[in-house]
Design goal:
The structure is a single chain. The protein folds into 2 domains: 117 residues; 176 residues, Up-down Bundle (Four Helix Bundle (Hemerythrin (Met), subunit A)). Helix content is 81%, strand content 0%. It contains 9 helices and no strands. α1 packs antiparallel against α9. The longest helix has 61 residues. The chain is elongated.
Length: 313
């Protein structure tokens, strides 16, 4: 099972747990409402009943607020765990691709050009996905948690700069072999351009700099400010909680598309290895109402997530 599928399952468990908590609060509220109605029916009990109602209502509102804040914090925690796992997976794949490239260069490079090209393209593909995911995650933070996006801005910029630097370093290594470089570099540059989707930023993976990446993040920030202003003008009743799911589904769809591409790529590579075929051309195409102990989210939600990882191992 993929990391994205594990994340979606954990997200569903978290939502189910939140609904259970809210249902428990509502059942307690109904019981207290019934008690309030009984107190009102007693002779001279109206004053006492109203005092009881005020106290109960205040505690109920605090309980609901606490549960909502707790649920939001847990969602953010889950997303952070997912992000760390995705980045770890990408780093491992980048390491494997770079090792493939350096090993191929060390083995009579002039006679090994197809293998070298295949390794470089694999590295560029992973670097492109890393950049795509990093930008998608930052846009999601801008929509769902703006303060956190500012805390992560420097790290995001550093990672984007590192990705482009790694891509340029790989091509620079080819320059030690002039004949190989003149033959493969145009093909690799065309391949990198073919990776860019319709919605990708115009800056190429090979040409992006710290300044251009910082300007791109600034553009996303400006777009989000405008978007939040538009939402405020359209309606003053829309809450942050109502806007957040759309941004969450957006990043999830992007990740799901990337995971599908990963699976297709993995299948293609396995088939090529089985047939021993190397392509010769570039394809451009304090909750007073709750009496039960609240279950630990780490145990309930992340526990089964970890179990899936153990099964994989």
């Amino acid at each position: 099972m993929s990391e994205h599928a594990n994340f979606k399952q954990a997200e569903q468990r978290l939502e189910n747990l939140h609904r259970l908590r809210m249902s428990k609060v509502m059942r307690d509220w109904e019981e207290l409402e019934q008690k309030y109605q009984e107190m009102k029916k007693r002779s001279g009990g109206e004053i006492e009943a109203e005092e009881f109602k005020r106290g109960v209502t205040s505690r109920f509102q605090k309980t609901i607020k606490n549960l909502e804040e707790e649920g939001l914090a847990e969602k953010r925690q889950l997303l952070a765990v997912h992000q760390n796992r995705v980045l770890s997976h990408l780093n491992e794949r980048k390491k494997e691709a770079m090792e493939c490239f350096t090993s191929a260069l060390a083995e009579q490079p002039e006679q090994n050009d197809n293998k070298i090209r295949k390794c470089v393209e694999k590295l560029m593909r992973i670097l492109h996905k890393d950049r795509h995911h990093t930008l998608a995650h930052y846009r999601h933070l801008l929509k769902s948690n703006p303060p956190q996006s500012q805390l992560e801005r420097d790290y995001t910029l550093q990672r984007l700069t590192q990705i482009s630097s790694t891509a340029r370093t790989a091509l620079k290594m080819l320059e030690r072999f002039p004949a190989l470089n003149s033959k493969l570099r145009p093909l690799i540059e065309d391949y990198v351009l073919s990776l860019q989707g319709r919605d990708d930023p115009t800056a190429s993976l090979l040409s992006a700099t710290r300044e251009s990446e910082s300007a791109l993040l600034g553009k996303y920030e400006e777009m989000m400010i405008v978007a939040r202003g538009d939402v405020a003008m359209v309606t003053t009743t829309t809450t942050t909680e109502e806007v957040t799911p759309s941004s969450s589904s957006s990043v999830n769809e992007e990740e799901e598309n990337q995971e599908e591409e990963d699976e297709e790529e993995k299948t293609d590579e396995e088939e090529k290895e089985k047939k021993n075929i190397i392509p010769a051309v570039v394809n451009n195409n304090n909750n007073n109402f709750i009496h039960d102990q609240i279950i630990s989210v780490r145990r309930e939600v992340f526990g089964s997530h970890s179990n899936n990882d153990k099964k994989k191992k």
